[in-house]
Amino acid sequence: MPSPVAQSPPKAEEAEAVAHQAETTIEVGGSESDTGYESEWASSVSTSVSSSVRDYTFENGRRYHKYSEGRYLFPNDESEQEREDMKHAMVLNLCGGRLHYAPLDNPQSVLDIGTGTGIWAIDFGDEYPSASVLGVDLSPIQPSWVPPNVKFMVDDAESPWIYPINNFDFIHLRHLASSLKDTPALINQAMVNLKPGGWIEMQELYFDLSSDDDSIPEAHAFSKWLTFVRQGLETFGVDLLSPAKTQDRLKDAGFENVTERIFKVPIGTWPKNQTLAKVGLYGQAMCVDGLQGNSMKTFTKGLGWTADEVEVFLVDVRDSFKDRKVHSYLTFRVCYGQKPVGGV
Ligand SMILES: C[S@@+](CC[C@H](N)C(=O)[O-])C[C@H]1O[C@@H](n2cnc3c(N)ncnc32)[C@H](O)[C@@H]1O
């Protein structure tokens, strides 16, 4: 079975149908039994990403970035990289293979902030061979064999930018809400460094669990976990629900043609539609596989829990994913805007 990362996204017509359901109401599948994805999934997670061994710190058995130490609270080890690449596959399936929604016209200079394993930047470089793509991240975890038009650099995007002004056709950020402390400042900086007429696009999961059929129980351990993560991040000055503010923030910064699309990301294989069930499988694996890494620093350093208390709580949280009567989803918010053609 090929790696999920290598699986091709749905074809155009089906992709439209999937996107439509994900933006409206997702039909629940007829059976609450295992659709077969789970067993396939167990043996299929693999990644070709190789990691550098430079500049890391270790805590509670996990590896973290060393450059600008403490800036990003989640691990950067192999298992976290596999999880990030799986999230990429999840998003591609949800979005019909689209890497962006901004209406780009022959982009030449592209910046991917917080590029992670670089998987989006590499795919973008493949899709636009005439573009130069720069991916920056706190961690040097990107592969060295990449398309010739893709480069990576270790940098802290919340430090002053060293890039030329009026330089980029496209600035892309994805899955950074759990890290950024001053998003409006970063948006203003992006405005300075974009060419007039260039685009910014921010793609973020919104970590508030919902259902359309009231199927989330009152005392749902995963919902409680999300609340604790949000509170823990708050103590570090991070607002995990900030993606709800992106549209206003882009407008406030002076971006034009600001557009937002909101897709439902099912958690679990409950959707009837097979592509959305696959997205749901990835979504659930993303949550379950991320529990330990996303909790440790936020709960221990932010909320004062011991590592043992975290592990005990996580047993209940993992259990909460087994209830197949729960038809829950997170949302994925895509928001893009254009720097005025006449500049600012
Ligand atoms: C959740 S991962 C997302 C990776 C990638 N954008 C993707 O969608 O596949 C967040 C990444 O942002 C990086 N990051 C967080 N804060 C950053 C900052 N201030 N400057 C640069 N990178 C940052 C982290 O090191 C991590 O690799």
Automatic annotation (TrEMBL):
Q: Which InterPro entries match?
A: SAM-dependent_MTases_sf (IPR029063)
Q: Which SUPFAM superfamilies match?
A: S-adenosyl-L-methionine-dependent methyltransferases (SSF53335)
Q: Where is this region: Disordered?
A: 1-46
GO molecular function terms here? methyltransferase activity
- One Pfam entry for this protein is Methyltransf_23
PANTHER family attached to this UniProt entry? ABC TRANSMEMBRANE TYPE-1 DOMAIN-CONTAINING PROTEIN-RELATED, METHYLTRANSFERASE
- Name this protein carries in UniProt: S-adenosyl-L-methionine-dependent methyltransferase
Which species is this UniProt entry from?
A: Pseudogymnoascus verrucosus
